[in-house]
Amino acid sequence: MQSLLDFFSFTDPNIRYVVLGSVLLTASSAIVGSFTFLKKKALVGDAVAHSVLPGVCLSFILVGEKNPFVLIIGAFFTGWVSLLLIDVITAKSKIKEDTAIGLILSVFFGIGIFILTIIQKSGISSQTGLDQFLFGKAASLVGQDLLIFGVVAGILVVTVFLFFKEFTLIAFDEAFASTIGVPVRGVELVLTTLTVLAVVIGIQAVGVVLMAAMLITPAAAARFWTEKVSVMIALAALFGALSGLSGAYISYIAPAMPTGPWIVVVVSTIAFISFFAAPKKGIFYRLYHQAKIRANMNDENILKALYHLGEEEKNFYEQRTTEDIMAKRAFDKSMLTKGLKRLKKERYISKKDNYWALSREGKEKGRRVVKLHRLWELYLTEYLRVAPDHVHDDAETIEHILTPELEARLEKLLNYPSVDPHQSEIPYG
Known about the structure:
Layout: H1 2-9, H2 13-38, H3 42-63, H4 68-92, H5 97-120, H6 132-135, H7 143-162, H8 164-172, H9 174-179, H10 184-223, H11 229-253, H12 259-277, H13 283-313, H14 322-328, H15 333-345, E1 349-352, E2 355-358, H16 360-383, H17 392-398, H18 404-413
Antiparallel strand pairs: 1-2
Helix pairs in contact: 2-7, 2-10, 2-11, 3-4, 3-5, 3-10, 4-5, 4-10, 7-10, 10-11, 10-12, 11-12, 13-15, 13-16, 16-17
């Protein structure tokens, strides 16, 4: 507890630099990365991250010192050139974009490693720590770094705010954006520049290797929680900032633990939690929703079987055993038992001793399922020219998902028919 209080007191300048630097880097990268993610160009971040290494090394050779401003300029130049080359290769050749990205990534990274090796063997004393750009070392951030990162992060956030509408349009529909007069190429150029800047300022914290994860993972995690772009970007920034803060804290309480990799571990954990637990889009919700749909279909099939028995015997409220129901339609015994219990709880059927009978509500619901089944069979035979003996299976599925609006349209389209293709009566109630 004391370590937590000491950490958040920010009395130590080194802690202040690392925490603020990590939060600025991760949050601003996540904001820009959201649009890269929405444009389905996640690999672009990886290409840029690996392509900045030659720029860092060449800048060091030119000035002879690890000046962060100069290194950022060099990294920005080669990162931007890499994206330009990807576009040129894709447009001027038969090579697809993903192949072009892989090509540029490997070539630029290979050149970067080659130049870095030469520098390390040169004997220049000031080159010490240059290899930290590979894996990052947020703990080495100082006041000068923080000032530069703060300025760049501010530029990223302000530019995204100013171009928010345009970025959103080209992320979802470039053709529409062009039609209404948006300068698509110009906007893409701005977004490309922001992406390179985001990667460039992030490599000192998490390194070349892990920067792509920092760019895309917060956006991927945020996408599970919302359908609104503005909310998604805010969540991505929050997840990024939280991971930066957590990574810095873990590095503080365990000095042997590097900050950059832990930032990525934390944001990846957030992404996994989102993947499984997010409402509406998470795996757990989908499994629950699918189970609920299957249970509803099973219950409607039970009501339909009871309705069919009532049609045959001209008595819809006759009490039936489970054997009677299973003789009419093949059910799994356990699924039938669970369905009967649910229907009884919902008052669609009643139970007396070991006999089951439709209630008025149950008869009405069963009648509607039968009606939808027979209407759909008739629609398939009359409008799609499907043979009558091939329509049953399709109708078995569609009867459970037709809405009242579609039901009314079907009735009107078919002119309120009285019988289906098999000459069975279509019940209207």
